[in-house]
Amino acid sequence: MMGESSMAIAATGLASSSATAATSVSAEPDGLAKAFGRAPVALIVEDNAINQRLAVALVKRAGCTAVTVDSGPAAIERVKAGGIDVVLMDIQMPGMDGLQATRAIRALAGEAARVPVIAMTAHVLSGAEEQCRASGMNDYISKPIDPDRLKSSLQRCLLPRQS
Q1: pTM of the predicted model, to two decimals?
Q2: Residue 32 above 80 pLDDT?
Q3: Which domains does the chain have, with CATH numbers?
C-alpha cells in the first residue's frame, strides 16, 4: 500500500530532490499574481520533506512564492514576522499540530491574526473539515493535493483581501 507521501508524488508525477526546513521559491507570473499585484507569499507548514517539496511546486504553479517551515511553532514565528499572505497548514505534525498552530495564529495581534489558513491534510474522516474551520482555518484541501483545487482555494482566500 502506498503511503500518503508516495501517493501525493505519484499523483503529480514530480520527481524528488532534497529539501530544507526553510526554503523560498519564486513563482512565474500568472492570473493570481496579476490580480494580487505581485506574487503572493504562501507559507507551507509541513513536517514531511516530500510533501513539502510537492506543495512548493504546486504553490509555484498557482502563481505564489513559497516559504516553508516544518513545525507549528516555526509557523507562528514566521507569521508574526510578517510578509505572509496565506498559510497552507498540515494538520498532523509532531508536537504542536496544525489545529493548535492555527489557534495560536488567530490569537496574534494585528494583521497576522487575519492571514488566511488553508488546511492540507490526509484526514478524510467525518468532521475533519469542521474541526479545521472551528480552529480558525479558512479552507480545507485533502491530500493528495489536486492542483486545480489548490489554485481555487488560494483564489478564494487571497483575492477577497485585495478588494
Answers
A1: 0.81
A2: no
A3: 4-162 (3.40.50.2300)
